[in-house]
Amino acid sequence: MKKSLALLGAAALVMAGSMSAHAADGESVYKGGTVPTCASCHDFGAAESPRVGHPGDWGERLDKSVDELVETVKGGQGAMPPMGHQASDEEIRAAVEYMLGTLE
Ligand code: HEC
Fold it and tell me: pTM for this structure?
């Protein structure tokens, strides 16, 4: 009985994972889609970038729409270089959505 419950739990996890295929793309853009990678700054808060997994770092940025955030990333801001020439709008959007997903 215990074993079958554990199996059910594992199956639910697998299903949750495959439902977010889009987020998985975002994760690979975030981790390896650009040079430097988004992760190289946003994993650690380099140059005071808002970190993934730390909602408190984001402040007012959380009030922006995804479109606005994507525009900022494309054009660069402060210490963040413009990323628009390295990744498509869709890729940047997926990476931003992945990042926002870590804040929930
Ligand atoms: C060289 C370091 C660096 C890299 C690489 C980098 N960022 Fe940033 N990012 C920053 C910094 C610093 C800020 C804060 C800029 C500011 O508000 O002055 C920022 C801000 C942001 C914001 C908030 C934008 C807003 O409207 O306030 C988002 C979203 C973001 N980055 C996503 C990304 C994504 C996606 C990538 C990869 C495609 C990326 N960043 C790559 C340093 C970086």
Answer: 0.83
